[in-house]
Please model this.
Amino acid sequence: MERTLDENWKTCFAQLGPALLLFARRWANCRADAEDIVQEAFVRFWRRQHSIENRALLYATVRSTALDRLRSDQRRARREAAVALDRDEHSEPCFSTADEGQQLLAAAVERLPDEQREVVILKVWNELTFAEIATVLEISQNTAASRYRYALGALKKSLQPHE
Amino acid sequence: MNDFSELESELKRLRPTEVGDALFQRVERALLRPDKTATAETPGAGIIPRQPSRTGTWWSLGLGLTAATVLILLGLGFFAPPQTKTTPTVAQETPAASTSPSLTSGLQPSALTQTVYRQRDEGLVFSPNQSERLLRRVRYDTRETMQWRNPQTGASLRVSYPAEQVVLTPVSFQ
Model:
């Protein structure tokens, strides 16, 4: 039995979509690719009738979908290299910023290493526990916590005024 | 963590960019489409590519070898010379009664060993059955060796074959 389509998927997607896109950016070289990943993962998740409260599973689905796409891409190496190169050049904003302070913070988040940034995204904008983050990213709970700590340390340092 | 509480609250005030209408429409169209396990329409779909064919090959090879071994044993038991029958009343015995002594006095299982020579953690997969739970899949490459021995004659038979075992462990989310 499939869940009825009218059953508030739009509400769920409106609420979760922005953070899902943010998370998917790691494996995409542009917003369009990230949208492809999110679309595929969300549809798959919704069709399987998982509880929308199970955020960890939803993010695991996004990650698996993204990795699967990378695996299936025969030009994987070239694509990954393009992702690395393009990320700096792409200036599509990931955040809606209200003032200069937020712009600086958003830029600092985007400069974080991927491993740290994805933990911050899952922790801050999705409120996953370290145990859930560990499951999603297939790392240990301690690793998740330390990456988060390093990330916040780096952000704090980058936001301090330089003399 | 208290050092970062202010920074964390600043981060939470930062909002990711909203999802555009185009993506909403794409998701809606995809949800309206019949579910064909998404493989036909999107080649990259799938959580982790499954490898059922290889698993099936190894299992069928193992089962085939086991079945062949059983047949060999039955054949050995069937053709083994009877050791106790001397009376002419053998014609009145049932076939089961005539084969039973040779089987029991023939080869008997004496050892079974299983050596794991490779273990691979293949990550998270969805359960193939209806429960659709997320599972961790670990694949073990093993070599199983079975040995039979005839305690009377000292004859022994040993069969060794490769096998593959897949262990699925449910992953719980909090």
